[in-house]
Design goal:
about 260 residues; mainly alpha; Serine Threonine Protein Phosphatase 5, Tetratricopeptide repeat
Amino acid sequence: MPKELVKKVTALYREGRQEEAQELLQEVARIDPETSQDFLKRGTACSFLGRREEAMADFDRVIELEPDNAEVHVRRGNVLFCFKKYREAVAECDEAIRLAPDNQEAYATRGNVFMALDEYEEAATYYEKLAERFPDNKDFWELNRGAALSLLERYQEALAVFDTIGIPPCIEPFPSYSYYLSRAGALTRLERYDEALDTLAQGMEETKKEEGCIPCFVGNCWRIPYLDSLRKPPYRQRLEAIIGPKPKIQISPCGP
């Protein structure tokens, strides 16, 4: 199933097994489709590989064969989002939600559109409603809401939201360190630097339990602008004690 492919590939990237993820995607992209699920799976692999025109052609074929397939509209929405065709992406997500009202990936892509369009107030309200509607994934939606509030420079409110998230956080498909980076960012903006460093220390301990994620966590600590104050005296020494010295090569975030 395509959902299983997405989950497997995402897990491989998070574990730092990029070569295996690429090999799996290349293998799936070579299949000769016969059914709507075959086209959906191949199109999903192509979209991961950046072959988005090919992906959309496969997704169009799925709709011809199976018009009521909700997942294909989610996949189309994701590709359109990558093309920055945001309103078209929303239309695809709305169709997915019409066909499958509890499809949370469709709601997530819709939220990404709000953020991409700098509609942070709308995003914060949207994520708050989703946290109520889908309590099993509350941490994920609240992390997104906190991020929107931070972008509105409402750091105290963002911090209050982050503090409702469980430890360790359950924010899949994000790695758990996303929570610690976001919380540390809000604390840094509030000039609560020691607490921010405490959060990063806790994040480092949790990240050690997630295979392959330490380089990404460390790279983000050195890269993200809102942590810049922690990279300067008098806090830099403690930061280095937590995450180590600045890597010579900056690491990009986990995931495709």
